[in-house]
């Protein structure tokens, strides 16, 4: 198909298609003449993946390029595809304190988790603990164990899906990336819904209030 | 204290302090003369909260201003503080399909959740389901129930903390905001850690690989 049809079907502008192609997110189309390039269904599928990672998952173009490169590397083990997908997600810019890192390491040890110190989750959790301390709200750290139990449920579900695609490496790699990146959005969304449900169940409001529109 | 001391103690530059003050995030200090303004420990505590919401929680300055205004409104019910905190978090820009919204409504009904249609979680979850469909990966929707079970654990923990501060409205409002905003980061971080643990437990690697540094 021509770029105009690819743009219409994918919902991505022709300018963005050319940009993604230049940045290495999308393979080049096949030149058919001076001013025409031909694209296939594989280009369409790739564009849809790019859109999901950027628009729904919130990844940058550079981060999307890196995880797509990990999917495209046929010999890369899935554990490394996972590490790339995790590394692509937004992360804290301020390094956490050594004290908070130690506490996260202890939590992992207590739960029997084997996790590298470089796992971006370690710095993220430690950064939140540092915030609690700065705010003089170390009582919020009591959330940690129940959140960890919830995270275990989610990670088991994630890995069941990946293992279900085990015979097909490319599909399994896509599952790792899509599951990791969109899973954060999915979980945060479900959390907003249950928070409202639990709050209104515990404290019924006489006059239900609409959500503020920001 | 003077602005220089406030800046040193909070780790926020004097320029940012003045900017937050102009934007209504921080009450003005007390004028002590032509070129001197006096700040209190309350200014310091507020600055630490601002920093946590922006740097660790990823909120914009405008969103931070709105949640702080909700905390500062003494008569605002906690359920509305929660709605403001949820509304402040980043959200999808593309509206989801009606089909996906219906599916999210059914999920909520099946689990006995009472949730407004305007809850930002509904659009977030529906947007992820739309992505699965576009990617021809509707099998990923099988994650929904286990993620929902995990979200229930998290929301119960969140609300237990808020109810624990019930006698003190300002503390409870702060708990709602900090818990909601930093809770996403906490949960996502713990998910990264458990994903690595579950993946390496199921599929031990002969040579452990360090995490890629992006």
Describe the secondary structure blueprint for this structure:
2 copies of one chain form a homodimer.
Chain A: H1 3-10, H2 14-22, E1 30-33, E2 36-38, H3 41-56, H4 61-72, H5 78-88, H6 98-110, H7 120-134, H8 144-164, H9 169-202
Antiparallel strand pairs in A: 1-2
Describe the structure.
Two copies of one chain form a homodimer. By secondary structure, chain A is mainly alpha-helical. Chain A is 65% helix and 3% strand. Chain A contains nine helices and two strands, in the order ααββααααααα. In chain A, helix 4 (61-72) packs across helix 9 (169-202).
The main β sheet of chain A shows up as: 2 strands, antiparallel
The oligomeric status of these chains comes to homodimer
| Helix-strand topology string of chain A | HHEEHHHHHHH
- Helix/strand/pairing category of chain A: mainly alpha
Strand line-up across the major sheet of chain A: 1-2
Would you tell me the overall average pLDDT of chain A? 91
Radius of gyration over C-alpha positions of chain A, nearest whole angstrom: 21 Å
Keywords:
homodimer; 9 helices; 214 residues
Give a quick precis of the structure.
With 214 residues, chain A is mostly helical. The first copy, chain A, has helices spanning 3-10, 14-22, 41-56, 61-72, 78-88, 98-110, 120-134, 144-164, 169-202; strands spanning 30-33, 36-38.
